[in-house]
Amino acid sequence: MDTSVTPEHLQSAPEKDGIPGEHADNRMFGFIVFLLSESMVFLGFFGGYIALKLTTADWLPPNVDGLEIFNPAINTAVLVSSSFVIYFGELALERHKLNLFRLFLFATAAMGTYFLVGQAIEWNGLNFGLTTGLFGGTFYLLTGFHGLHVFIGILLQLGVLIRSFTPKHATPENHYGFAATSLFWHFVDVIWIILFSLIYLWQ
């Protein structure tokens, strides 16, 4: 008698003692745990920045009176607004409006790209570098590490956008990729609000 267990048997295993035959989908739980670990990294950076600023006599580099705030504030407004745009995309998907969903997703990626370009322009106009004292090092570390996350978020959005053209991939019942991407984008926005407050508002 053949008693081997095939993958087909595992997938269709019946419920026994109240335990379903298939494993529960824990992908979103795992992604949330990943974001919590990322939060710990950023919290460590925030704590280090605060400690260094409070204990360093000459915090700003020579010939630097402070950071210009107008253009970074515009970039901040664009990035924060993109969280609402991607949320509208989620609503469109729930209502089976796939083309509108794609439009909102593309707009979110465009707004993220605007933020990165604005940040690059700001960096190019600064008169201090990565090795210009503690302020220079922490400034570029924090903004650069966050910028990397923005770039990753844009790639995720474009990936979801491309895959949405695959039949039955982006539906109200099947959209884990978009849900994870949206959550990641909200996380990136919240981190930037904290960064903007620490670096630009608290000067």
Rg (CA only): 22 Å
Shape: elongated
Main β-sheet, in a few words?
none
Structural class, judged by helices and strands? Answer: mainly alpha
Strand content: under 5%
Specify the oligomeric state.
single chain
Order of helices and strands: HHHHHH
Helix proportion range = over 70%
Number of strands: 0
Total helices: the number is: 6
Unreliable stretches (pLDDT < 50, length at least 5) are 1-21
- CA-to-CA gap between the ends? 78 Å
Average pLDDT across residues? 87
Write the layout of secondary structure elements.
Blueprint: H1 7-11, H2 27-55, H3 70-94, H4 98-125, H5 133-163, H6 176-201
Can you describe what's shown?
The protein is mostly helical and 203 residues long. It has helices at 7-11, 27-55, 70-94, 98-125, 133-163, 176-201. Helix 3 (70-94) packs antiparallel against helix 4 and helix 4 (98-125) runs antiparallel to helix 5 (133-163). The chain is elongated. It starts with 6 loop residues before the first helix and ends with a helix.
Short description:
This protein is mainly alpha-helical. The chain is 71% helix and 0% strand. Helix 5 (133-163) packs antiparallel against helix 6 (176-201).
Q: Notable features of this structure?
A:
203 residues, 71% helix, mainly alpha, disordered N terminus, elongated
